[in-house]
Amino acid sequence: MRYLRNLLFFLCLLVFTSIACLVLAPLWVLGLAWTPGGYIGKWWANILLFSAGVKVRTFGMENIHPDKKYIFISNHQSHFDILVLLAKLPPSYRFLAKRELFQIPIFGWALYFAGHIPVDRAKKGDFHKILDQTGKVLKRGISVHFFAEATRSPDGKIYPFKPGAILLAQETHIPIIPAGILGTRDILPKDAWLPRPTQAVLSVGKPFMVSDDSSRLLEILESSRKTVAALSGQELGESHPKKTLQKSA
């Protein structure tokens, strides 16, 4: 049964991602992909979740006003986080993801045509470029999402946040909404290829404004991390394991 489920998931991934790409490509060329891209993303994500046997429970969705734009931040445990967020957040929403995902044929093209934002984690100089790209998306009235740790958790703990989302909130005076995702690590652990049918939970916190006081940046980052940890049920990690190993080598 599980093999049939996996076959159905990969078949849906191929077929419906191809359809999304074929629809979005001409719209992107014409500059018309922004609004339909969000709805197509929700349709695509819900189909893939269903085909994988994944059910998603949501809490706190009343904290999102459909006519307002936000900067979302969340934890990151699995590639299935993307499907959960696309399926359940409003269609006027785009996320930042590592550039390697955008280089995957068909899948990556669909992400790009829909207006999601590629991030080259190897180029530190791209930071201002990222803020510029996300700023342009926000000006269209579309919310943006940061996986605040900038990578998937290797062990289920939540590690120190990168400052990008907070700095963007300070610059644009747009509220941040914290969100916690639970269960996706069990669906598709890091380095795994086959999803397991189970339940995921998306908990959305209340929006908050960020102080313009740059001296409080570390305090705001840690407070945000604790809020996301409370929403996701994760333990706090003091420093990223990979960085610890690199320093001791």
Describe the structure.
The termini are far apart. The chain is globular and about 55 Å long. A seven-stranded mixed beta sheet has the order 1-7-6-2-5-3-4, sandwiched between helices. The protein has ten helices and seven strands. The chain has one domain: 3-Layer(aba) Sandwich (Glycerol-3-phosphate (1)-acyltransferase). Helices cover 47% and strands 14% of the residues. The protein has helices at residues 2-29, 34-51, 80-88, 99-102, 107-114, 127-139, 164-172, 184-187, 217-232, 241-248; strands at residues 55-59, 71-74, 93-98, 117-119, 143-147, 176-182, 199-204. It is of the alpha/beta class and 249 residues long.
Overall domain count? 1
Helices and strands, in order, run as: HHEEHEHHEHEHEHEHH
CATH top level class name: Alpha Beta
Strand order of the largest sheet: 1-7-6-2-5-3-4
Task: Quote the average pLDDT.
Answer: 90
Tell me the radius of gyration. Answer: 18 Å
Q: Compute the number of strand runs.
A: 7
Please report the distance between the alpha carbons of the first and last residues: 45 Å
Q: What's the CATH architecture name? A: 3-Layer(aba) Sandwich
Percent range of helical residues = 40-55%
Q: Could you say which structural class the secondary elements and strand pairing correspond to? A: alpha/beta
Sheet of most strands: 7 strands, mixed
The total count of helices amounts to 10
Strand percent estimate: 5-15%
Runs with pLDDT <50, length 5+? 243-249
